[in-house]
Amino acid sequence: MANPTCWWRPSVLRASLQNHVNYTIFSSDIFGVLLNSIIVFTVYRWPEMRTPCNLLIVNLAVGDLAVASLAAPLRIIEVFVGWPFGNFLCSVLLPMQEMFVTVSVVTHTTIALERFRAIVRPLKRRLSLRNTKLIIFAIWPACYVTSSLPIAPILKVQQYNGMDTCMPLWPFVLYRPIYEVYLLVVFIAVPLFIQTMAYFKILKTLRTRLTPMCALPMNRKLSRAIQYRKRRRLIKTLGILVLAFQVCYIPRGVMMMVWEFAHDQLDMTIFMYADLVTLILFYLKHVMNPIILFATSRDFRRSSCLQIFCH
Question: 20 to 30 A Cα–Cα from 109, which one of 12, 161, 209, 240?
Answer without folding.
Answer: 209
